[in-house]
Amino acid sequence: MPETPDYPAAREPGCPFAPAAAVRTMTRDNPVGRVRIWDGSTPWFITRHADQRALLNDPRLSIDEKRAGYPHMTRARAASAPHHPALITNTDPPEHTRLRRTVNGPFMVKRVEALRPRIQEVLDSLIDDMLALPSKRPTWCRRSGCRCRRW
């Protein structure tokens, strides 16, 4: 049986977005396992996307942070949970469904797609402004992966 690693795990210096070595090891060797958090409890730690999606649709699991045994990530979150209002991110159906319906409209595919031309216009303008700074062009092109022919 694999050792139960502490979570969150320490990250190596370098890219702040790179997962910690312990997380990479769990993803490879034990993608559905347990971790030890601040209070000594050992909640499940699921590293594969397909498993995460399946769990998000499983009605046996709860996101209700006010339920006994909920694995709060910090002592402060555990202490403040009883005072949090009901939100999409901390309620289960049917309350979650009711709240989601109240905000879904602006995020419908048709509405988001209607925003695409304006978003593209703003983005193009920002990139043009950024590239207009002569000292920054090569750096930004390298960082963004842009294959600027001029540089």
Summarize the structure in words:
This protein is mainly α. Helices cover 42% and strands 4% of the residues. The chain is built from 6 helices and 2 strands, in the order H-E-E-H-H-H-H-H. It has helices at residues 21-29, 49-56, 75-80, 95-103, 109-131, 137-144; strands at residues 32-34, 44-46. Strands 1-2 form a two-stranded antiparallel sheet. The model has no long low-confidence stretch (mean pLDDT 87).
Brief sketch in words of this structure:
The chain is mostly helical and 151 residues long.
Give the topology:
Blueprint: H1 21-29, E1 32-34, E2 44-46, H2 49-56, H3 75-80, H4 95-103, H5 109-131, H6 137-144
Descriptive keywords:
6 helices; mainly alpha; two-stranded antiparallel sheet; extended; 151 residues
The description of the largest β-sheet is: 2 strands, antiparallel
Low-confidence stretches: none
Question: What's the helical proportion of residues?
Answer: 40-55%
Give the C-alpha Rg: 22 Å
The main sheet orders its strands as: 1-2
Q: Average pLDDT, to the nearest integer? A: 87
Number of helices: 6
Total number of strands: 2
Query: What structural class do helix, strand and pairing data support?
Result: mainly alpha
Order of helices and strands: HEEHHHHH
**Global geometry:** extended
Amino-to-carboxy terminus distance: 54 Å
The proportion of strand residues reads under 5%
